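Shipment paperwork, digital attachment
Item: protein structure file
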Amino acid sequence: MKLYYHPGACSLTQHIILHETGLPHELESVDLKNKTTGSGKDFLTINSKGYVPALALDNGKMLTEGVVISQYLADLKPESGLLPVQGEARYEVLEWMSFISTELHKTLAALFNPAVEGEWKKAIVAQLSRRLHWLAKEIEGKTTLTGKSFTIADAYLFTVLNWSRFVDFSLDEWPTVQRYFAGIAERPAVQAALKAEGLI
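Attachment content:
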């Protein structure tokens, strides 16, 4: 398999998962501005959507959309515990994936856009703050989102929260979230992915 990624982007989630599972893989960076890969290929010929992650499978198929790729990788290595195979526990993790994708990822990512300013930016920050207040209550006393083992949702939330340092959005108001983030950052797989992407 080959993961097409951009350092620190949402593809960091799948990069972490690959390290957690120990699945053999290759990496190829993508310049998202110019839509070129590290080897000089036109990324749009690889993923016409033009964004990462994209996962090239050994059979020639290409998977896109981070939430789906995360599930795919976890299902390849069910013994990793990154996504329960069935039952309510599986849907609890998928519920978190949906929340992170729709309520945190899109909201925080908007702050990367230099056109977002003034009242528009204030509204985005207010919405994000409300979501983080809710999140802080939900994870009080927990080291992972489910309160059990590390899952694909924790890899995703770590990735999104990591963006806060790039868009000058302080997490100081939510010490519970900061503690959670710091704990996840210590995982060997997270450290390995961050180092491989040149982020530490």
